[in-house]
Amino acid sequence: MRTVLHHTHAPNVYASGPLDRADRLRGDQEALTLAISSETARLFPVWRGNNLVQMGDTIRGWTVQATRTDLMQHAKLSVFLGLDSTGAPHFAIDLSDFEEPPEFEPGTAFEDLRKVGPMLGDDDGAILAYARGLVHWHRRHLFCGVCGRPTDSRKGGHERRCTNPDCGAPHFPRTDPAVIMLVHDGADRIVLGRQKDWPPGRCSVLAGFVEPGESLEDAVAREVMEEVGLPTTDIRYNSSQPWPFPSSIMLGFSARATAEEMTIATDEIEEARWVSRAEIAASPEDETFALPRRDSIAYRLIQDWMAQGN
Ligand SMILES: [Zn+2]
Fold it and tell me: What is the domain range of residue 37?
């Protein structure tokens, strides 16, 4: 992982990408039109939620140029992502209008970041997550939530505005806050649960969406109580992670349970149990017991607790 000075921790996967988002350019349509067709431009295609990648021992994001007019005619949308350290402009383009995923060079394919994310480098992962998240937001906000008329893209794809002159409501990209928390006993055990639709053996820490009128700490305490019936205290922030599947930001916490006996809400989770450091260290990573995926903040919360305790 990269070390970024403004973090107290190394950033999580998908966070702290390499681009300067250059919001100063978003309002300058002329500059953006020049930028997207420049020789140095890198365009990251997205097709129906999937990112274009080059498959191999490692997986990389694959880019195209605006000289591909066959593509650009079908690009429903372009979103200005920012500039890299050389000043090269980066864009996401939405190719979802193609009935089938368009084909590119051999070895490239449109893949779901949920599947290939753990095999990407940090920089590529962050850019693809950003591209995917913004394109998804556009596709879900084609109509105004105020008056129901169509919206169009503005500000390099960082705003949509209602086309009804009597309304004109602006709409901004959204990210939905979710809390994810490692519940521990103040000693050697944490709570791991699993949901019915997860791969066999996969366990993770608890998580849930923040509701209006709640602080993040309120949401942590409520979700733990709802899912496993445990009261908590000592709620502490760890770190956060953009999680564009489809549009969340995961806010990671630890919390100490003040009781031991759990009451499982089986409509939310299939099972939950107390697990010791020794059991986690010896995880067979098979259908009997497997830790969360390596690119997730859940995995990171567990690793931090394994290393330091709480
Ligand atoms: Zn409207």
Answer: 23-140
